[in-house]
Amino acid sequence: MGTHVIKMPDIGEGIAEVELSVWHVKVGDMVVEDQVLADVMTDKAMVDIPSPVHGKVIALGGQPGEVMAVGSVLISIEVEGAGNVKESAQPAPVKEVPVAAPKVEAVVESKPVAAPAPKAAVCQGPMVARAADERPLASPAVRKHALDLGIQLRLVRGTGPAGRVLHEDLDAYLAQGQSNASAPVAAAYAQRTDEQQIPVIGMRRKIAQRMQDATQRAAHFSYVEEIDVTAVEELRAHLNEKHGATRGKLTLLPFLVRAMVVALRDFPQMNARYDDEAQVITRLGAVHVGVATQSDVGLMVPVVRHAEARSLWDSATEIARLANAARNGKASRDELSGSTITLTSLGALGGIVSTPVLNLPEVAIVGVNKIVERPMVIKGQIVIRKMMNLSSSFDHRVVDGMDAALFIQAIRGLLEQPATLFVE
Q1: Sign of CA dihedral 111, 114, 118, 120
Q2: Fewer CB within 10 Å, N- or C-terminus of the chain?
Q3: What is the dihedral of CA 66, 71, 76, 80, to 10 degrees?
Q4: Catalytic choice (145, 228, 396, 403)
Q5: Judging by beta carbons within 10 Å of its beta carbon (0-12, 13-18, 19+), is residue 118 exposed, middle or buried?
């Protein structure tokens, strides 16, 4: 028998180290060629590491969450053959799975009674008691769905990564019917002493690192402007009524993308990347709009490439396609990189004002807040209008405050007079 040592492969793009996200095998397991051994996380993607040989796992080279250098020992496999230690002449081929959920299990401790293992807890049913001030993990879409259904999220057991509440968990909660109607009430007032420790690894670690890096390196400043979106909403409704059945429904996002594209013609300094190490600003003619998208594993930013060359429906189709790919873990690395400016929106949960964090090395991010109907004074008359705030952030090292204000004002003018979006 011999030993085949598999080293951490060179995934490319100059990556020197990756994070070991999850093992799919353990010591003693028999593996076959092309079987996935582990998932590793790069800056943008989750990557599968398959086995190049048949054999028995005899040693693992790291623990989930550990950052490993390219070329370090990943796993050792006992194989048929001579007794020499062999290393793969070529690294094992890797398969990119950009946003596959890292398999993170929460460590739960209960005092004075020991808590069951996390997997056992998940199987106990869709109902769970949480402290009144405990905020369960859930995406904005799930929170909105729960709000619409009248469900208190703290009473729903999450089966997603790290106990995240998913749409299926809401369905399971509702499926219980009235048979356990009194259980949530009693559980809501139960005294709790348990604690939960969630390792920050995988995609969550990458998000944390990028957000921290952005706030430490860039000189953020935000600018908020109020926009009357009544006219553009009327146009959107008209277009959906006339063409929705054949071309697809339009949301507000394609109009915002179009407004950004047109405004950037006069403010090219916003469509730029700043290399703060080389002290070089690169302004780009192509407008690659990153659209911040919430997924079950965290915030993704898929990229609508060449937005300057897309129609409303083309942009709408691409935004929907990329959002679905990100949420389903099927977005490629190329689809998650290369943006020149970012658009972020929390949809119906958008609030009144937000302070978005820049997506470095970009220098501008446009944040969308929710639309509300408010009384406004127009030509001395009080009328009801649909109003929305844009809460946008900029890198003050590159963008001057006056230019940022004028840029957002330009977007405002285009949206308030939507015909100007299409006048060349």
Answers
A1: negative
A2: C
A3: 160
A4: 396
A5: middle
The pair of structure tokens assigned to 325 is: 């790919």
pLDDT tens across 117-137, in order?
443 333 344 566 565 556 777
In the annotation, is 400 catalytic? yes
CA–CA distance, 215 with 33 (Å, rounded to integer): 44
Q: How far apart are CA 269 and CA 394, in angstroms?
A: 11
Torsions phi, psi of 49, nearest 5? -110, 105
DSSP one-letter code for 393: E
Query: Does residue 112 have a cis peptide bond before it, meaning omega lies within 30 degrees of 0?
Result: yes
To the query of whether residue 133 is one of the catalytic residues in this protein, the response is no
**Would you state the pLDDT for residue 138?**
79
Pairing of strands 341-345, 289-291: parallel
Q: Which residues of the chain have pLDDT under 70?
A: 12-14, 43-45, 82-134, 162, 177-188
* CB-count burial class (<10 Å; 0-12, 13-18, 19+) for 54: middle
What's the confidence (pLDDT) of residue 14? 65
Query: One of 171, 194, 275, 400 is an active-site residue; which one?
Result: 400
pLDDT one-digit tens code per residue, 147-158: 878 888 888 888
